[in-house]
Specification:
Length: 184
């Protein structure tokens, strides 16, 4: 499968890099010249949005996810309400990235955006031009199509297994492998 914006990357089961072990990454931007930007979908943090952004005054609980090891002093968001947030970038059908942050805060405080509409990420994953393609050649990642449910409805703890199973064939067998080799 050719890598493009809107794909997901699924870490191969024996990846040792702690940042990416059993991770599922949404590719939000991919250019041959500029490189690739994505967000790890299945690393929920013990932090809430209201702890990071003082202007958020809703009682709703918006979870924060670890998006990746690059620029961990930044907040990003992926959502399904591109029609409400100006300047959003469509990643794929039903998946949008970013947009007008002031409008976003207003919509959250007005309870027009719910936790089921959006995911927030600290940091991001990034690859320079050609770097990710080299990692794909070595078998570090499995490329698949994104399903908006992976972001907005699937439990993050089960996402790696779910995405591997949904790939079918040999990947569904790989999905059954335990996290630790010693458990085989």
């Amino acid at each position: 499968m050719k890598l493009k914006k809107g794909n997901i990357l699924i870490a191969e089961p024996f990846m040792e890099d702690g940042n990416f072990k059993r991770s599922v990454i949404c590719i939000c931007d991919h250019h041959k010249v500029d490189g690739t930007v994505g967000f790890i979908l299945n690393r929920k943090m013990n932090t809430r949005l209201s702890e990071l952004i003082q202007e958020i005054s809703t009682e709703e609980v918006f979870d924060i996810y670890y998006g990746g090891p690059v620029a961990v002093d930044t907040i990003h968001y992926i959502h399904n309400v591109g029609d409400l947030i100006e300047d959003s970038i469509q990643v794929s059908r039903g998946v949008f990235w970013g947009g007008d942050f002031e409008k976003l805060k207003f919509l959250i405080n007005s309870e027009m955006i719910k936790p089921s509409n959006i995911r927030f990420y600290i940091g991001y994953t990034g690859w320079s031009a050609g770097q990710l393609e080299e990692e794909l050649k070595t078998g570090s990642w499995v490329v698949s199509k994104i399903d908006p449910n992976y972001i907005f409805k699937s439990p993050s703890r089960q996402l790696w297994k779910q995405t591997m199973t949904n790939k079918g064939d040999r990947y569904s067998v790989i999905a059954q492998m335990p996290n630790s080799i010693s458990l085989n």
